[in-house]
Amino acid sequence: MSACRVKPFLSVYLLVALLCVSLTSTAQSRYPQGLEQVGQARFSLLWLDIYDARLFSADGSYRPGEAPLLLELTYHRAISSRELVDETLNQLEGRFERAAVPGELNDLLPSVDDGDQLAFYLRADGAGAFYFNGKYLGELDDSDFNRAFLDIWLAPDSEYPELTRRLKGKE
């Protein structure tokens, strides 16, 4: 094959490869669809409603270690990004080594207002994506961190066992 014929072929090949990568990343950044609700719960401290939580899975049931899972939190009050990150780090204490928490977490947890929704989607491959009001924020590929993050709400020894039971559809 002459050099003149190879260049157009390589250009077309590169264009197709880039298009495939672009479509894959676009598909992964779309808000998850087709999941069934497992359970829901309201999280309150004293008399303050903080958020409503809903958990979704492929078939509407929760089985530890299985994915995909989608956790949606709809907030009832304003909370700064810094407060969300700090509380997340506090809740991860004992579940995940603080030094190993991905630095991107600071960029992925936005400030929220009353009515805002923050969602975390754990894919079957262990990657986790964050969404804010349905808009893709970014993802973390650390499957150990992603599981520990969901365990804040789903672990048998979570700080709020009633919330955990309801999210798992047990009440």
Helicity level: 25-40%
Total of domains: 2
- In the CATH hierarchy, what is the architecture of the largest domain at level 2? 3-Layer(bba) Sandwich
Mean pLDDT, all residues: 85
Low-confidence stretches: 9-27
- By DSSP (H or I, 4+ residues per run), the number of helices equals 5
H/E topology pattern: HEEEHHEEEHH
Identify the CATH class of the largest domain: Alpha Beta
Number of strands: 6
Distance between the termini: 69 Å
- Note the quaternary state here: single chain
What spatial order of strands do you see in the largest sheet? 1-2-3-4-5-6
Looking at CATH, which topology of the largest domain would you report? Chalcone isomerase
- Radius of gyration from the CA trace? 19 Å
Large-scale geometry: globular
Helix-strand category: alpha+beta
Classify the beta-strand content into a percent band. 25-35%
Major β-sheet annotation:
6 strands, antiparallel
Walk me through this protein's architecture.
The protein has 171 residues and is of the alpha+beta class. The protein folds into two domains: 1-30; 34-167, Chalcone isomerase (3-Layer(bba) Sandwich). Helix content is 36%, strand content 26%. The protein contains five helices and six strands, in the order H-E-E-E-H-H-E-E-E-H-H. Strands 1-2-3-4-5-6 form a six-stranded antiparallel beta sheet. A hairpin with a 2-residue loop joins strand 5 and strand 6. The protein is globular. This is Chalcone isomerase-like.
